[in-house]
């Protein structure tokens, strides 16, 4: 089974080797037929601590690294 890859923006990099990434998705509301935006935050593993707040990155699904981290930074 292929691993999921999501694209988002770094909103926090305070923790060591961890970034918080906000991923936004858009979909059409089934009843109102309007485009709706929903966002979710993921914690991702950043081994080199090289990403700063505001960077646009891609994260890939992986096995659990800690209690909250199940994603690693790809680009």
From TrEMBL:
InterPro entries: NA-bd_OB-fold, Ribosomal_uS17, Ribosomal_uS17_bact/chlr. Gene3D superfamilies: Nucleic acid-binding proteins. One of the primary rRNA binding proteins, it binds specifically to the 5'-end of 16S ribosomal RNA. Coiled coil: none annotated. It comes from Roseibium algae. Keywords: Ribonucleoprotein, Ribosomal protein, RNA-binding, rRNA-binding. PANTHER family: 40S RIBOSOMAL PROTEIN S11 FAMILY MEMBER, SMALL RIBOSOMAL SUBUNIT PROTEIN US17M. Belongs to the universal ribosomal protein uS17 family. This is Small ribosomal subunit protein uS17. The lineage of its organism: Bacteria, Pseudomonadati, Pseudomonadota, Alphaproteobacteria, Hyphomicrobiales. Part of the 30S ribosomal subunit. CDD domains: Ribosomal_uS17 (cd00364). The keyword Translocase does not apply. One of its GO terms (cellular component) is ribosome.
């Amino acid at each position: 089974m292929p691993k999921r890859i999501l694209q988002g923006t770094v909103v926090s990099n305070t923790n060591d080797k961890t970034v918080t990434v906000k991923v936004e998705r858009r979909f059409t509301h089934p009843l109102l037929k309007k485009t709706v935006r929903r966002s979710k935050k993921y914690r991702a593993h950043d081994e080199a601590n090289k990403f700063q707040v505001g960077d646009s990155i891609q994260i890939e699904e992986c096995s659990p690294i800690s209690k909250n981290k199940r994603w690693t930074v790809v680009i």
